[in-house]
Specification:
This protein is of the alpha+beta class. It contains 29 helices and 14 strands. Helix content is 57%, strand content 9%.
């Protein structure tokens, strides 16, 4: 052990001893494990120092300590991320006394997927008995399912190794179009994760030559690889057909692999998932359907909230007397009008929920008007839908052959002097010139080229920079295909119509700023705006609100700043606000629940008694909250207010998680806006407060999930 490891060990043992004076052994250990999960001790210690120090602590050896520690599996999973942090002796002990906990730690850490791990090899060699044999057998079966797809991926990539990045993207664009004609509920986005994986794998092996795209090289590549598919008499059709088939096999293999990765994530992160080794039976299954139902409820909530913000945007447009104005040409008016509504919706949502300002500053210092960025994205989507996807669908209906439909679309474009190929491209000045028309204002009647440049920067993924990043720092988040739908290669900007015409611009913008660029300097001020915006919404309903209250020290420990403390008519709210990104996978939700929300719940647990004492003794605080000296002290309702919807209504470590959007709907009493925008007959929706708004009724609405009653 290093000196830093030993100091961490001493810290955890001292913390456990301190907690043991106040709690039963299991609870004391649980408190100590939360210190580890919260990256304590602070200072110049690495995550590895803490993991080695925690694993060396003596409290693991007493079974009564571990049995009552709810966080033991999660904590041990973090330790198992370091292969030699846990001694074999401790693994033996945990396997003998806490096998269930150890198996969940293995699942949470995905240790079984690291087949070269010395810890995993040791466990496989030394643990026996039916339960362990079944567990190892299930882990083996899950990994064996990946092998044929890995071989198919390797074979296909070998056949395609001579293709440049540009040529691979050309074939992918043709295949993606062919999926649009399939009767799928989500034809555009179904395989986006597959294409992302293929592109990222290609970027790992790209050379500098892949990014030196000249006009001559572009023309030569398209003539050889794309034109023969669209115009069969123009080149080597057989060669292109073979390459297209190899890309199709690669897509199929990657799709299957990602599907099976989903099964592994289900096994690792869904507590409802059980396993078995029985002939003819699936190796993993759900004990109940609660996890599936929860995921479906989240999807339904997201859909309803999409309509909610659209209703708000329509109301803003109506109030501004824009409802009757013709936007653009008469034939494009409806599409443009919808794009304007969606842009206003996105701006409103991003400002209320994520605290964005009128202008957004990127990591490289570029500033972009939020409304301009969203409007450009929505108008781009409308353009690609009208000029590419709808004509393609008509031609496909007539011919029944995707390649024929693509050829006709491209040919019609050539006749009009427009690029209607499956993948579009233009040099950066041309792209800026096109975007410039969407930045017209009183100040810039012909559009603002600098604003257009900023918009392009906001939505662009530089594939050379991304190639360098994933080789040097592979764990950094990479932009998803739709999060930055302009792809820079050399001096050219490329777009896929099947992405640009169907993307969710709102999710793309939020995740572009929060997932891909989590270290932007603006993030702190945005989080503060979320808090102050929520405070103002509560004040409009009569609450007295204190933002950023700093309670007195609780002994030697600082309980931390209280984000929002609110009072109205004897109801006190203690709110911990968390702002992140929009999650799309089970693993992302699990990480959010066990990291951000778990930590927020711990903060509330620490702050709740301190705030209660402060309400008793701090007359200044009581005055700020509008509480007289004679008022009884109510027990605060403590909630985690989350910008995400995924864990809305759940209870984490004893504290309710409530979505910021749900609070918005409840405070404004607008459940009537949680219905489809195009619904002809508006359903009669009763007020959440039939007897008028009150603080206690508001608490009831939130804690009973009344916003969703009858809607899910």
């Amino acid at each position: 052990m290093l000196d830093a490891d030993k100091r961490c060990q001493e810290y955890y043992q001292a913390q456990f001893a301190r907690y043991l004076q106040l709690h039963a052994p299991g609870v004391a250990l649980n408190e100590c494990l939360h210190d580890f999960l919260d990256q304590r001790p602070s200072g110049k210690y690495t995550t590895r120092n803490r993991a080695v120090g925690l694993a060396a602590a003596q409290f693991w050896w007493e079974p009564s300590n571990v049995e009552g520690a709810e966080s033991a599996s999660l904590t041990l999973a973090r330790v198992l991320n370091f292969d030699d942090a846990v001694s074999f002796e401790l693994l033996d002990h945990l396997a003998a006394y806490h096998p269930h906990m150890l198996r969940w730690a293995i699942r949470y850490s995905k240790l079984f997927t690291r087949t070269d791990s010395s810890s995993w090899r040791y466990l496989r060699e030394t643990l026996h008995g039916n339960e362990w044999s079944d567990f190892f057998g299930v882990c083996d079966r899950l990994l064996e399912q990946l092998k044929p797809f890995d071989k198919a991926i390797e074979l296909a990539e070998g056949q395609l190794s001579s293709l440049s990045l540009l040529e691979l993207l050309s074939y992918l664009s043709v295949l993606a179009y062919s999926c649009l004609g399939e009767g799928d509920g989500d034809p555009a986005g179904r395989d986006w994760a597959v294409y992302e994986r293929i592109i990222l794998r290609k970027l790992v092996v790209c050379t500098e030559r892949d990014f030196r795209v000249t006009e001559e090289a572009l023309a030569r590549s398209l003539k050889r690889h794309l034109s023969p598919i669209l115009f069969p008499q123009s080149g080597p059709v057989a060669e292109c057909a073979a390459s297209l088939e190899a890309v199709a096999l690669l897509v199929a293999a990657v799709r299957e692999r990602i599907d099976y990765e989903g099964s592994i994530d289900w096994f690792c992160f869904d507590t409802e998932c059980d396993y078995q080794l029985k002939p003819g039976k699936p190796v993993i299954f759900n004990r109940t359907d609660e996890g599936t139902l929860r995921w479906r409820r989240t999807e339904r909530k997201s859909q309803l909230l999409w309509h909610y913000w659209m209703h708000r945007a329509v109301e803003l447009i109506a109030a501004a007397s824009m409802a009757g104005q013709i936007i653009g040409s008469p034939e494009n008016h409806e599409a443009n009008r919808l794009a304007y509504i969606k842009a206003i919706r996105s701006q409103l949502y991003l400002q209320v929920v994520f605290g964005l300002g009128e202008r957004v500053r990127l990591t490289d210092g570029t500033e972009v008007m939020l409304y301009h960025a969203m409007l450009a994205s929505e108008l781009t989507q409308a353009f690609f839908e009208q000029e590419f996807l709808q004509p393609y669908q008509r031609y496909l209906d007539e011919s029944g052959v995707p390649a024929v439909a693509l050829g006709r679309l491209a040919f019609e474009g050539l006749l009009q002097g427009e690029n209607r190929f499956p993948m579009t491209w233009s040099e950066l000045p041309d792209k800026i010139r096109r975007i410039r028309g969407w930045t017209v204002s009183d100040e810039h009647p012909a559009g603002d080229p600098e604003a257009a440049r900023a918009i392009l920067q906001f939505w662009t993924s530089d594939l050379l920079a991304l190639s360098t990043q994933i080789r040097q720092t592979p764990n950094m988040p990479a932009p998803r295909l739709y999060e930055r739908p302009y792809y820079k290669i050399g001096r050219y900007s490329f777009q896929f119509p099947w992405v640009a015409g169907r993307q969710n611009s709102l999710t793309a913008a939020a995740n572009n700023l929060r997932r891909v660029e989590p270290r932007r300097p603006e993030l702190r001020s945005e989080t503060e705006r979320v808090e102050h915006g929520l405070a103002e919404s509560l004040r409009q309903r009569g609450f007295r609100v204190v933002v950023g209250y700093q309670p007195p020290l609780d002994g030697e420990r600082d309980a931390g700043e209280v984000d929002l403390l609110c009072h109205l008519n004897g109801a006190v709210l203690l709110l911990e606000v968390k702002s992140g990104f929009i999650r799309s996978t089970q693993h992302e939700v699990w990480l959010h629940r066990t990291n951000t929300l778990r930590k927020a719940a711990r903060q509330l647990k620490r702050k709740h008694p301190v705030v209660l004492r402060a309400l008793l003794i701090d007359q200044g605080l009581r005055a700020q909250l509008g509480m007289s000296e004679l008022d009884p002290i109510p027990v605060p309702h403590a909630w985690v207010v989350d910008t995400s919807i995924e864990c809305d209504g759940e209870v984490v470590d004893g504290f309710r998680v409530v979505s910021r959007e749900v609070i918005e709907v409840a405070l404004r009493d607008e459940t009537h806006n949680l219905q489809r925008l195009d619904q002809e007959e508006k359903a009669e929706v009763a007020s959440l407060y039939p007897n008028g708004f009150s603080a206690h009724d508001f608490v009831r609405v939130i804690e009973s999930d009344a916003v969703w009653r009858g809607l899910l």
